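Researcher: I'd like a structural prediction for the single chain below. Treat it as a standalone chain; there are no partners to consider.
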Amino acid sequence: MKKSTKFVAALLIGAMTLSMAGCQSKEEKTTSSSVTAASSVDTESVSEVATSYDFEDVLADSYETVATSATSESVESTSEEFNVGASAGAEYTNETFNLKFALPDGWSFFDEAQMEQLNATIGDKMNSKEVADAIKSGKAYIDMYASTADQLKTVNINLADAHVDIEAAGGADIMMSDTVLNTTKNALEAQGITGIEVTKGTTTFLGKSDTPAIIVKGEFNGVEVHETLVYAISGHYLATITAASFGEDVTQDILNGFTTLN
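Model: Treating it as a single chain, here is the predicted structure.
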């Protein structure tokens, strides 16, 4: 159970980090350099919020099912089967999850220095083995962050280690319990988002129109906030993809930028 709850902490950081970074830019109209600094601070504060939850109790009902339904015992992480992604030019790729993301016009990736600040709670310039070891211990790792210049449309990818075969345990649906939805809502409310609705739904992702998704709607300082979270799975590794937009809901357009590598 303890390993599973750390796994969900990474999911919450995925949702909240994106909200915090977007809200910071909306409220303060930051420049690109100050967005970098704000994002680093936001990541640390979000981590503190997420890990302050007693996930052992909050998610007990969800993960008792995981523990008993998986066809195999918990598996240990092996760095050899895991690779971090790469953002180069106008594309992000990740071989572990068979993912590719093409930047829309007017978008850019956070550069190496900015990504190091986002992941400051883990360490600088980590290779795949070091990241695998970090997420195995329950830490969050942001593998990619991209946005429009005004930060009002964003997407990020967080990597986690579930320590169980996720597909055997029920796939993405294991993340869709009422407990998980309520915990996500409470965590976002703690960051200043109001009028939040967090629901289980489906969206189109990698050509599949019935992809399980967590749909978030809310408001920050009178501006609508929209988030859609979907998952890519590779054995016991999970990538949480969070698309967000302020004002008009264009999260599906953002997710349409993802394709498979092969």
